[in-house]
Amino acid sequence: MKNSDAKTSDEIVREAEAWWKTEIIDIHPGKIAMRGYPIEELIGAISFPQMIWLMVRGDLPTAEQSSLLEAALVAAVDHGPQAPSIAISRMAVTCGVELNNAMASAINVLAGIHGGAGQQCMELYADAARRMEQGATLEDAVEAALDAYIAENGKVIPGFGHRFHPIDPRSGKLLELVEAARAKGVVGGLYSRIGQQVEAILERRKGKRIPMNIDGATAVIYAELGFAPELGRGLFILSRSVGILAHAWEQSQQGGRIKGPMPKSIPYTYAGPARRAVPEVK
Amino acid sequence: MKNSDAKTSDEIVREAEAWWKTEIIDIHPGKIAMRGYPIEELIGAISFPQMIWLMVRGDLPTAEQSSLLEAALVAAVDHGPQAPSIAISRMAVTCGVELNNAMASAINVLAGIHGGAGQQCMELYADAARRMEQGATLEDAVEAALDAYIAENGKVIPGFGHRFHPIDPRSGKLLELVEAARAKGVVGGLYSRIGQQVEAILERRKGKRIPMNIDGATAVIYAELGFAPELGRGLFILSRSVGILAHAWEQSQQGGRIKGPMPKSIPYTYAGPARRAVPEVK
Amino acid sequence: MKNSDAKTSDEIVREAEAWWKTEIIDIHPGKIAMRGYPIEELIGAISFPQMIWLMVRGDLPTAEQSSLLEAALVAAVDHGPQAPSIAISRMAVTCGVELNNAMASAINVLAGIHGGAGQQCMELYADAARRMEQGATLEDAVEAALDAYIAENGKVIPGFGHRFHPIDPRSGKLLELVEAARAKGVVGGLYSRIGQQVEAILERRKGKRIPMNIDGATAVIYAELGFAPELGRGLFILSRSVGILAHAWEQSQQGGRIKGPMPKSIPYTYAGPARRAVPEVK
Amino acid sequence: MKNSDAKTSDEIVREAEAWWKTEIIDIHPGKIAMRGYPIEELIGAISFPQMIWLMVRGDLPTAEQSSLLEAALVAAVDHGPQAPSIAISRMAVTCGVELNNAMASAINVLAGIHGGAGQQCMELYADAARRMEQGATLEDAVEAALDAYIAENGKVIPGFGHRFHPIDPRSGKLLELVEAARAKGVVGGLYSRIGQQVEAILERRKGKRIPMNIDGATAVIYAELGFAPELGRGLFILSRSVGILAHAWEQSQQGGRIKGPMPKSIPYTYAGPARRAVPEVK
After folding, report:
1. Which residues of chain B have pLDDT under 70?
2. Between chains, do C249 and B56 touch, taking CB under 8 Å as contact?
3. pLDDT given at position B1
4. What angle do CA C110, C111, C116 make, to 5 degrees?
5. Where does the signal peptide begin and end (chains A, B, C, D) (predicted)?
6. CB pairs under 8 A between C and D
């Protein structure tokens, strides 16, 4: 393939050097720096959550900020073999793929519906925060943000309620940690108040408690720590990858070949046309 | 990142131009040729299976060769929602991904165990064919190839027997088409004889019929047509992608959110330690 | 995991049977039917494009409809190693994955921007068609549909213009085939007229020709044949998968290990902070 | 799909309940336990690396074991946009996918060649350790393990030498941490000695230093901590996922559409047949 433009080699090389541009990592023979910090000075000195923060944001968190991030990462690692991502990871292994492939097929489905609730919840919180910045009270801001969300996306509020858990045992613990961090001045507490206000309004509107679930609680933490909503999903993926790996590995130790979603004794429902002859089509 | 080697821009450009090298497609502004054939002359002139053949092999098949390939592609498109690949495609859609992502997660698991039987069977056939070239009779060659396969891989012979179908309705039809093609001189028939000999030996050894399944039958076709074993899997993927797309699309029309592998009323088995307190670890 | 609901085994089995529901494939021991047609009657009787149509739509196309679909599938198989999907497929192979994995990583990126132009173009055409149904002239309908598209999505019109080809050699040939099919009454020609009207308006507005590219031309074909826009992308994926496979296979024959996007003699641009010491964070 | 076996609903439910079996997570409404530990007691109490260890191994590490694991996780997060996995992640984003999809396409290629060096190196170390258990000296065991590895896999020894770094700045730091842990009795030091012996033998054989790289050094750590070789790759994936996410996110902030591997000013090499006419094939 030849471009019609006549460029000199020097021009082509300059264009090629500019093709990939990053502020994350600088590599020279024998030297590697992440965000400016020599890698050998980071190893052993910072924690894995601090490294995660440094890589996606460019600066180092304090130890307290990092602890809060760590709690959120610990909380979301797994939700069992009936979660599609975990089931896919286990099924993939029985098809003969390696761990990286099983993880890829599984992580791929941590999309809007399965893995995106935290991100959507962060956007809801951010909308309420923006309204407060513009002068609204907490109550009015959350009420308006909820109405706007529902108008655009329908009634299911991401981060609140759970198909399975009447109360999510992870949320309360995470909110306690946020409160402790707020008391120490590590975080401001705005998003925690917004989240609790969402809960209060939902209870008033529905006449029953729709408690904050893990997505709502980690959204509070990620928002308090200043992460962009998209990174909320990214952090969830890093966390859930642990469960996806653990289940893929356990399945590989159990064995099993071409394990479908249900045992073959349970037939699926065929709802199409009855058997019929092929007409002449050619 | 700077390489220590001092290269001139001309050298760098030459190295870069040589970085990706292909015999498949030649592109210039306004001109596209596949294996030398202008694309606008191929469109409307050759069939999709002929294009598949051209792309992976570099030459055009005859109409008869193409028909045989087409029959194999038609035969393997789907095996229902209890096949892991199809289930993954449907589950992925309910997680909120788009069709390309659902297809990717599903195609990714068409690996050694789930999608590799045809490829392995082609390798078994090829081993028998090599032994015949070196002078062995059909009977001895297949016997020895089977023994060698079992010694290395265990007792399950890829392409023969089925967990579900006592007789695979696809195999007989495919072998008829091979026989018809052989009668017309389109293919030599060697691999068809090898496949049938495998079946005969398995029946003698096991005392019951272990009939050739679709993987064994498409392996006959692909081997007769001269495809490499790895391409046997590649062709299977192109075929099964059709079913994967159809099921992903059907699921998207049905709706459903975060659909796990089984209804939640069916619990999974937890076989780990009973609930216990977290010890001090930090 | 136990649900609190006390269900009987019969209820659980009924719920499980209804969990996966399909109109595509019916499987019983020794019997497989696609959309009601016994598989052994389809093999050898219908073409691969006809099988694709049957699987995603439920009915069989005529031979003429199928030929038009086939032309579109043939046209879009590849766009060379500078397309991200093709490059990813080749790079993946050099990392040690198998063909199914390379194809999965590549197909996964046939998303909104890279593979979605056809789908978006079909939606644009469909909007114009709806406006014509409501009484607008061709000219007014296309003008309004374009304005609505631009207002929501910006100035780039999917399916028109190309970064590389001044004239796309595939489009003209595909439109010829549509015109021939229209002359024979195979298709109505509405979407062909809409597509050409888009081209005419763009030329008038921009003062230069922005010719219909392959996405715009296959969108005409798929729309003429009655496919939903999402399936436009699905069909593109089936087509491009052929090129993805061919390049993965070619790369595997060439060898190469951990082949990055560019030769290492071309450095990337590091634009982050200069080397700095790690502060105390723990 | 009906199985020929007549099973009662009770039998089917029992079979279905046993279909997915795990020792990792136990879920009941309002209760979640990982390996027996209530999740709410783990959150805030254990670190993310401790959670990773707990999930894949079933027990909790000591704080010192966890620190060593953490250092290895921190060390391997990124190797820049010329690594295929990172480039794929960035290219994927420019095609319009979301972060989970970009990460999946990238993680998928952390296969034998790109991400498997650590795993292979752990297998080499384990082979040497087995030989020592059977009575061989360190020198003889490593010599024999190396010879066996080379005989089966060729001359490239995984974990030693680097295409780019004359000395890998990460390895020395990691080995220091292993030595400090050994001095405190946290690890035994066997694999560290094996790794250094590999280096010594390679230097003697090749006449120049082939220094241990990051894969060789993390392999020492993972082996010292008792991880299975396959989990070595799994842990590498968790680590590299951080870089993959950071680069995907940075690319999404930079923008860019359908970004191929190299700028279009650099043509690829077409080495196939010259332009030719399509023969009659149908």
Report:
1. 1-5, 163-165, 281-282
2. yes
3. 42
4. 95
5. none
6. 161
Q: How far is CA D168 from the centre of its chain?
A: 18
Residue bearing tokens 């073999």: A81
CATH of the domain at C173: 1.10.230.10
> Same domain for D32 and D110?
no
Nearest beta carbon to residue A109 from set B29, B91, B113:
B91
Contact criterion met (CB < 8 Å) for C261 and D258:
no
What is the distance between the alpha carbons of residues B89 and B103, in angstroms, rounded to a whole number? Answer: 6
> If you measure CA to CA, which chain B residue comes closest to D18?
B269
Choose the closest CB to D281 out of B46, B272, B273. Answer: B46
CA distance D61 to D226: 11
E-strand ranges in chain A read 21-22, 25-28, 31-34, 37-38, 269-270
% residues pLDDT > 90 (chain A): 74
Work out the burial of residue C155: count CB atoms within 10 Å of its CB; fewer than 13 is exposed, 13-18 middle, 19 or more buried.
exposed
Q: Are residue A34 and residue A152 in the same domain, yes or no?
A: no
ipTM for the whole complex = 0.94
Chain D residues inside the 8 Å CB shell of A48 = 47-49, 70, 73-74
- Residue D224 host element (H or E): helix D214-224
Residues C96 and C37 in one domain: no
Output the pLDDT for position D115: 72
What are the tens digits of pLDDT across the range D12-49?
888 888 899 999 999 988 899 999 999 999 999 999 99
Beta bridge partners of D33: D26, D38
User: How close D229 comes to chain A (CA, Å)?
Assistant: 11
**How many structural domains are present in chain D?**
2
HSE at residue A276, side-chain half, CA atoms within 13 A, is 13
Give phi and psi for A246, each to the nearest 5: -60, -45
Same domain, yes or no, for D37 and D166?
A: no
Closest residue in chain C to residue A277, using alpha carbons only? C37
Q: Do A82 and B12 touch (CB under 8 A)?
A: no
* CB atoms inside a 10 Å sphere around CB C184: 9
Instruction: Name the token pair of B140.
Output: 């001895």
Residue D198 to residue D129: CA distance in whole angstroms: 12
For residue D34, being part of any structural domain is answered with yes
From A137's Cα to the closest Cα of chain D, the distance in A is 32
Q: What integer pLDDT is reported at residue C267 of this predicted model?
A: 85
Q: Is residue B258 part of a domain?
A: no
Least Cα separation, residue A40 to chain C (angstroms): 10
Asked if residue D196 and residue D108 are part of one domain, the reply reads yes
- Report chain D residues whose CB lies below 8 A from the CB of C10: 9
Chain A residues touching B108 at Cβ < 8 A: 92, 97, 101, 104-105, 108
Beta-bridged to residue C115, according to DSSP, are none
- Between chains, do B114 and A104 touch, taking CB under 8 Å as contact? no
High-pLDDT (> 70) share of chain D, %: 96
* Judgement on whether residues A39 and A110 belong to the same structural domain of the protein: no
* D82/C260 Cβ within 8 A: yes
Cα(C219)–Cα(C121) distance, rounded to whole angstroms? Answer: 6
| Continuous segment of H or E residues that includes residue C25 | strand C25-28
As a whole number of angstroms, the distance between CA D131 and CA D144 comes to 8
pTM, rounded to two decimals: 0.94
Pair C38, C105 in one domain: no
Write the residue in C88, C96, C164 that is nearest to D111 by C-beta: C96
Determine the distance in angstroms separating the CA of B133 from the nearest CA of chain D, rounded to an integer: 28
Q: Is the pLDDT of residue D3 over 50?
A: no
CA distance D74 to chain B (A): 19
- Distance between CA atoms of A90 and A250, rounded to whole angstroms? 8
Q: How far is CA A248 from CA A105, A242, C105, C219, in A?
A: 11, 10, 19, 41
Neighbours of chain C (3+ CB pairs under 8 A): A, B, D
Same domain, B112 and B232: yes
What end-to-end distance do the CA atoms of chain C give, in Å? Answer: 40
